[in-house]
Specification:
The structure is a single chain. By secondary structure, this protein is α/β, with parallel strands linked by helices. Among the domains are: 80 residues, no CATH class; 91 residues, Aconitase, Domain 2 (3-Layer(aba) Sandwich), CATH 3.40.1060; 251 residues, 2-Layer Sandwich (Aconitase, domain 3); 173 residues, Aconitase, domain 4 (Alpha-Beta Barrel), CATH 3.20.19.10; 41 residues, no CATH class. 34% of the residues lie in helices and 15% in strands. It has 37 helices and 32 strands. Helix 20 packs parallel to helix 24. The longest helix has 26 residues. The relative contact order is 0.11.
């Protein structure tokens, strides 16, 4: 601890909590270090971490002084080493993370060092929540069936997790069936403040899921990082980032009756994505923010990745305290949180002018209208009243311009599709699902028919306001004799078991059951591609007739082919709207003028007839705020059910890899590990593996969906004796690099501009121009010793924080990604795997430079190392022998990233540090 840190220790005022001290931020201002009281609250929490951890090694006193003197609009070049209190992970990224640590232990053993040197020093909670598949839905036995299937498909992964819980002292496993990591984090794991060694400090974290930011809604600062970066954090490395800009978002006014938190968050997402807040902190303030229930704040904070922000922070105030008390936190915990934030002068929602922000944006809550977003991006909001016309335009617009018309569809002579392109219907009541008995599930599909309707995702199932509204709407619909369309696969996946308890207590679950929204599991499912199978006849109709089928869900992501590979239009909406559209059965109807269906009395029933009033929702709300429900259901939340307890658990410091396993293979990242980093190889004569457009997501780079037999990952599994019924998803197979290499860039909607007019993981091998899969091309280039690059447009790597979107390309031989722009987490993941992200400057890009994939590329000088923000020359040699040149910016943003890159990535850097901790100067 530096002298500055010692000088700021103050006793926390006495109260109903244990005595302790804290590092006073007001004391820093009194010492003249800066106008700390004017800093955004989120930055002050980072500043406290720097101050408390200032030891002259990991954190220097100069870094404390630099952040204390932050100015809202100054250039940013300082690197912040943020030491977090804990780390969270879902199993989707957590299993590969632990597999990497197990492989590091094997490498340590090979280097004659104790395997136990690889041990998390920061507490880690891993929640098993991404392995659920909605195989069965719409029935009373769906929950049990899906849980049994989950264990059957993932038994080996789960046995590995039980081994890890015993082998790594700092790892706690939350078993399947408990809920979604973010909702569990908000309802149980988050502490508000910690007391350690007599010192109080704020709860902070990073998580390996991009939606970790949801916890910002209760005043806990945290955000998503890639699994590679989280591994370093677990092993004691600070989370490094550039000093951020902080955008203040003033929420003014109040939501109108009938407008939901989902409508608000879709409006916020649209607004902030347009404002280009990528990589920045967002902090909410104002009277509207103060009036929002904490659950609504969490809904907004959850979708920070969708608008690109690192964090989306709501300061601690009275609403925060009330929420923590209602969710079962003790009076002592709540009192300590209030006392700490008051002592730091950080309690309460700031008003306009209270704090200094880099920029300010104002959102009027009273202007928010009922909304949905789609068909493939969460920022593409459309007012509910304009949805019918919007969908009609999408059916007439090419995919390349954001529509739903594909090249192969335009080329097809499909008269039926032409007839279906007019979405209006004169007899809406008779053709909608709610027209009791009139609909036929076997009738041919039309463009716009809904085939999936899911109340899902941590975004909304943590919010009792919208879930109670869904239950109330369902009850009114059932009372009027409406039913969901028999074609629609309906499902409900709550984010925690508490949701089941309060819907049952409110008497609303039976109505949801009657409409097919039985609970099918507790975890992330439809929103990340585990929606399960559609009836074969429906899927065959979609594929054979090129139908634009629709999914509606209350999730946070709707990227191409993410929800279901056969479904081309996906719309995000509130849970009550999901229920309503499941009844209607079509996306292209006007809920103001057309009925949902026909009631039992023969009369048309409109959305307004079943929409719950604010008073009805308020009357049901007390059922969701019973702290005893939270205490009871979280009392033994790490014990698991009988299925979990029955799993055997191996013991020992090292994991016994099974050579024939198709789920768990020792990660290859340390196979040729050496104590000293090899010299960086030059990048000359590189070929383009793919040329991609704008808004390429990590789904496109590393699919999450079910593995299909016709794709190369499926062919590999078949060769290993795995039946197609047991393929599972790419997410479940993430600890088998053979599967994941074959899955890289294998997304069914990937559009590689080198192969125009096609979708899927195809490219041209050069110089012969042979068309082949991306995997086959990469293997051919590896045999030929040709390095590879990927070229792309704006917003490369949006979406999930999956490290395999960097691991996969690295194993395929990709050395650099050159794009117009990067999303924050994916850029970091690329550096973490030793891939150089470079950004075109000025107007340069694929189109401006006339690139078609026949060229070779060179980045001179990178073998000497790359400094943060270094300008590089991209040399381009065309097939005709002519040459071109472009300046690109190395998106290595901080000094530590330069070190990571020189070591070949974060993982080898951390292993070298663990093997030889006394020679830090040789590493840094």
């Amino acid at each position: 601890m530096t002298q500055l840190a010692r000088d700021t220790l103050r006793p926390l005022p006495p109260g109903g909590y244990p005595a302790g001290s804290f590092h006073s931020l007001p004391a820093l201002e009194a010492m003249g270090l800066g106008r700390v009281s004017r800093l955004p609250v989120s930055l002050r929490i980072v500043l406290e971490s720097l101050l408390r951890n200032a030891d002259g090694e990991r954190v220097a006193e100069a870094q404390v002084r630099a952040l204390a003197a932050w100015r809202p609009r100054q250039p940013r070049s300082e690197e912040i080493p943020f030491v977090v209190a804990r780390i969270v992970a879902p199993d989707s990224s957590g299993v590969p993370l632990l597999a990497d640590l197990a492989a590091m232990r094997d490498a340590a053993q090979r280097m004659d060092r104790p395997p136990g040197i690889v041990e998390p020093v920061v507490p880690v909670d891993l929640v098993v929540d991404h392995s659920l598949v909605v195989d069965r839905a719409g029935s009373a036995d769906a929950l049990l069936h899906n849980m049994q299937l989950e264990y059957r498909q993932n038994e080996e992964r789960y046995r590995f997790l039980k081994w890890a819980a015993g082998a790594f002292k700092g790892v706690r496993i939350v078993p399947p069936g408990t809920g979604i990591v973010h909702q569990i984090n908000v309802e149980r794991l988050a502490r508000g403040v910690w007391l350690r060694d007599g010192v109080y400090f704020p709860d902070t974290l990073v998580g390996t899921d991009s939606h970790t930011s949801m916890v910002n809604g209760i005043g806990v600062l945290g955000w998503g990082v890639g699994g590679i970066e989280a591994e370093a954090g677990m092993l004691g490395q600070p989370v490094y980032f550039l000093t951020p800009d902080v955008v203040g978002v003033e929420l003014a006014g109040a939501l109108r009756p009938g407008v939901t938190a989902t409508d608000l968050v879709l409006t916020v997402t649209e607004t902030l994505r347009r404002a280009k807040v990528v990589g920045k902190f967002v902090e909410f303030f104002g009277e509207g923010a103060a009036s929002l229930p904490t659950a609504d704040r969490c809904t907004i904070a959850n979708m920070a990745p969708e608008y690109g922000a690192t964090a989306a922070y709501f300061p601690v105030d009275r609403n925060t305290l009330d929420y923590l008390a209602a969710t079962g936190r003790t009076a002592q915990e709540v009192a300590a949180l209030e006392a700490y934030f008051r002592a730091q002068d950080m309690f309460g929602m700031p008003r306009r002018g209270d704090l200094d922000y880099s920029d300010e944006i104002r959102i009027d809550l009273s202007a928010v209208v009922p909304s949905v977003a789609g068909p493939s991006r969460p920022q593409d909001r459309v007012a509910l009243a304009g949805l019918k016309a919007h969908f009609g335009r999408l059916l007439a617009t090419p995919v390349e311009r954001g529509g739903l018309v594909r090249a192969q569809d335009r080329a097809a002579d499909d008269g039926a599709a032409t007839a279906a392109a007019s979405p209006g219907t004169a007899d809406a009541g008779a053709t909608h699902a709610g027209a009791a008995g009139a609909a036929d599930a076997a009738a041919p599909l039309r463009d716009g028919d809904i085939v999936l309707a899911a109340i899902t995702s941590c975004t909304n199932t943590s919010n009792p306001g919208v879930l109670l509204a869904a239950g109330l709407l369902a009850r009114k619909a059932v009372e009027k004799g409406l039913r969901t369309h028999p074609r629609v696969k309906t499902s409900f996946t709550p984010g925690s078991r508490v949701v089941d308890a309060y819907l049952a207590a409110a008497g609303l679950q039976p109505a949801l059951d009657a409409l097919g929204f039985q609970v099918v599991g507790h975890g992330c499912a439809t929103c990340m591609g585990s929606s399960g199978p559609l009836p074969p006849a429906i899927e065959d109709d979609i594929v054979r007739n090129r139908r634009v089928a629709v999914a509606v869900l209350s999730g946070n992501r709707n990227f191409e082919a993410r929800i279901h590979q056969a479904v081309r239009a996906n719309f995000l909406m509130s849970p009550p709207l999901v229920v309503a559209f499941a009844i209607a059965g079509r996306i292209d109807f006007d809920p103001d003028t057309e009925p949902l269906g026909t009631g039992a009395d023969g009369r048309p029933v409109y959305l307004r007839d079943v929409w719950p009033s604010p008073d009805e929702i308020a009357a049901a709300m007390p059922h969701a705020g019973n702290p005893e429900d939270f205490r009871r259901l979280y009392a033994d939340f790490t014990e698991g059910d009988a299925l979990w307890r029955a799993l055997p658990a191996a013991a020992g410091e090292r994991y016994a890899w099974e050579p024939q396993s198709t789920y768990l293979r020792r990660p290859p990242f340390f196979d040729d590990f050496q104590p000293e980093p090899r010299p960086l190889a030059p990048l000359r004569g590189a070929r383009a593996l793919a040329i991609l457009g704008d808004s390429v997501t990590t789904d496109h780079i590393n699919p999450a969906a079910a593995i299909k037999p016709e794709l190369q990952a499926g062919a590999y599994l078949l060769s290993q004796g795995v039946a197609p019924a047991d393929f599972n998803s790419y997410i479940a197979r993430r600890s088998n690099h053979e599967v994941m290499m074959r899955g890289a860039f294998a997304h069914v909607r990937l559009r590689n501009l080198m192969v125009p007019g096609t979708e899927g993981g195809y490219t041209l091998h050069q110089p012969d121009g042979a068309r082949m899969t991306i995997y086959d091309a990469a293997m051919a280039y590896a045999r030929e010793r040709v390095p590879l690059v990927v070229l792309a447009g704006e917003e490369y790597g949006t979406g999930s924080s999956r490290d395999w979107a960097a691991k996969g390309p690295a194993l395929l031989g990709v050395r650099a990604v050159i794009a117009r722009g990067f999303e924050r987490i994916h850029r970091s993941n690329l550096v973490g795997m030793g891939i150089l992200p470079c950004q075109f400057t000025g107007a340069d890009g694929v189109a401006a430079l006339g690139l078609d994939g026949s060229e070779t590329f060179e980045l001179p000088g990178i073998e000497r190392g790359v400094a943060p923000g270094q300008a590089l020359r991209l040399l381009i040699r065309r097939a005709d022998g002519s040459q071109a040149e472009a300046e690109v910016l190395a998106r290595i943003d901080t000094p530590i990233e330069s070190t990571y890159f020189r070591h070949g990535g974060i993982l080898p850097y951390m292993l070298r540090k663990l093997l030889d901790p006394n020679h830090e100067e040789a590493i840094a």
